[in-house]
Structures are given as structure tokens and as C-alpha cells.
Amino acid sequence: MSKRERTFVMVKPDGVQRGLIGEVISRLEDRGLKLVGAKFMQIDDELAREHYAEHVEKDFFPGLKEFITSGPVMAMVWEGQDATRQVRRMMGETDPADSAPGTIRGDLGLDLGRNVIHGSDHEDEGANEREIDLFFDDDELVDYDRVDDEWLYE
Ligand code: IDP
Ligand code: MG
After folding, report:
1. Which residue of 55, 58, 68, 95 has the fewest CB atoms within a 10 Å radius of its CB?
2. Is the pTM of the predicted complex or chain greater than 0.90?
3. Which CATH number does 4-140 carry?
């Protein structure tokens, strides 16, 4: 069995404005992932620079920073088997235009700069833990069992 792990997920300002928080949460819940932390908040410039540190020097960063700080986001931590990679698979590609129908970006978005959701990159070792630490204190994450745990995992 792959490891049970936590990953960072965020409904971006476009997803909040378009009323898609519930849709995103539903998809993750239905898959069997467990919500262990959630924070409805607004990202400031400093947090945007830290969260997107790998992109700060890129041409698109000013627009990305403007967008990600433009309104509230729903920041969350989700737990489950192989959670980081599975959430990325559910999200689709970075550009909604390249994302398969059935994925979150493929079903809910059209434009690269408005792609509804962020999820930690499973190809970037430790990104999930770094992003969780950036957005949440330890005491804001909740350990609990879900009643369906034994029906989700062999
Ligand atoms: P990811 O969100 O799929 O991990 P990244 O390459 O890490 O994609 O880029 C972070 C975010 O920056 C994307 O989700 C998207 O919002 C934005 N972004 C990435 N590349 C571009 C671009 O070329 N133009 C505009 N925005 C971009
Ligand atoms: Mg990324």
C-alpha cells in the first residue's frame, strides 16, 4: 500500500468568485480523501512570493501575484493514500485547455491564468509539507478517523 500522506490544496480566487468551493471539496471528498485543515483567507504579497518562489523571476509572475492576491482563497489540507499525486491527477494539466474532461481544470476552466485550483506538485519532493507549513500551524490540522476508512482501504 502506498503511503498515507497530506497535501496542500487551494481553491484560487477565480474558483471562489465562481462559487466552485463546494464543487472542488465534493470531488475530493467523494474520492475518499479526508479534509484535515481549512482556512478561508486572503493571500498577501509576501505569502504569494513565498508560495510561488519558483516562479518569482518568470514573466507571468506579476500577473499571477495580482490574481492570487485579488480575493479570498480556500486553503486546505487533504489526507489519503498517495494524496499529493492523486490530487494532481484529479486537477488535470496546468492549462485547463490541455486538461482532460473529467478533471477539475478540464471541467471547470478554460484559461491558463484562471485555472481554479492549486495542488502541491508531487514531482517536487517535499512540496506538500512545505506548502502545508507555509499556510497552517500544526494546531490548525485535525487528526481524526472517518467512518468509511475501513471501506476505502484494504
Ligand atoms: P501548477 O499550478 O499546475 O503547479 P505551475 O507551473 O507551478 O503550475 O504554475 C503555477 C501557476 O502559475 C499556474 O497554476 C498558473 O496559475 C500560473 N501560470 C503558470 N504558467 C503560466 C503562464 O505561462 N502564464 C500565466 N500564468 C501561468
Ligand atoms: Mg506548481
Report:
1. 58
2. yes
3. 3.30.70.141
